Amino acid sequence: MTLALEVRNLRKTFGGGRTLTGRPRPEIHAVRDVSLSARKGETLGIVGESGCGKSTLARMLVGLLKQTKGEIVIEGKNLSDQVGDPAAFGRLIQYVFQDPISSLNPRKTIREILEAPLIHLLGMDESARKARITELFDAVNLRDEFLTRYPHEFSGGQAQRIGIARALAASPRILVLDEPVSALDVSVQAQVLNLLADLRKAMDLTYLFISHDLAVVEAVSDSVAVLYFGRVVEVGRAESIFSAPRHPYTSLLARSAPIVGRDLARTESLAVELPDPLRPPSGCAFAARCPSATMVCRDKAPAIEAFSQDHEAACHHPL
Ligand SMILES: Nc1ncnc2c1ncn2[C@@H]1O[C@H](COP(=O)(O)OP(=O)(O)OP(=O)(O)O)[C@@H](O)[C@H]1O
Fold this sequence. Notes:
Radius of gyration: 21 Å
Family: Belongs to the ABC transporter superfamily.
Protein name: ATP-binding cassette domain-containing protein
Mean pLDDT: 91
Main location: membrane
CATH class of the domain at 3-19 and 28-92 and 172-246: Alpha Beta
Membrane topology: Peripheral membrane protein
GO molecular function, one term: ATP binding
Number of strands: 12
Bound molecules: adenosine-5'-triphosphate
Strand content: 15-25%
Shape: globular
Distance between the termini: 29 Å
Order of helices and strands: EEEHEEHEHHHEHEHEEHHHEE
Low-confidence stretches: 260-267
């Protein structure tokens, strides 16, 4: 099994230290010792509610945000010390943003937007850039006449195709797709998901597909990691996670996902909020919401444990 990406004990803590007036600044542990791996050519779904640390994790993986601790290995290269070096990350891994229009520079034409990575990451000359841009537009099914237009002239679906073309420009091996269809109309979501699936096959890409929507993650993923309050609480092959979740949180997420054909009245809600990040609980972060919680859950955070070769969960009372 060859790995495209490996993350070891990755942590991001915001705040800490003191303010200019000497007051202590509270710490927020957005990502807490996350370890993950993605196999080459596969899609690793990363799922969790708003605030669980998905975007913080994603921004560290593409080198936009420096980690507090931990290692990032991409295509066998340890990039842990190279955060902020666009050439080191950008030729291997790229980011596709949730909101396609606002992620594109409004003052630049689409041609200029696509040229930027070709110039800065690959140093391509003009004729090579022209050929590459035609190739990219062809790959995402857009017409060449769009190249002289500006981002606001496009629909959400078209803008996301442009965002995908930009991410693919420098031929990275991995795409981090951060809620790539959440901002799009439902009718366009399937088209963009199909395009992504075709591109993955054609270019032998690896995807990290981040979403709060378990139904979408189920549809696209080979493996899945479930994040809760900055930690991986369950990880494994998608079929195993969806057919027999071991963590009560994954089970609750699955039952609360609006799935086509399911009686809405039977859909459970995730009414209780995440713990306060400024006052993290000492035991399992899910204990206050968990139907199976006992004393030990409130006292001691469970370690992640393997149930089979491809299925792990962090729970004192696994299902
Ligand atoms: N720059 C920052 N400074 C301080 N705290 C931050 C910062 N960025 C994120 N956080 C906190 O870190 C935690 C995780 O946030 P993050 O945005 O990664 O979650 P998320 O799962 O992507 O949520 P969403 O889907 O709403 O974007 C939250 O408690 C958030 O308030």
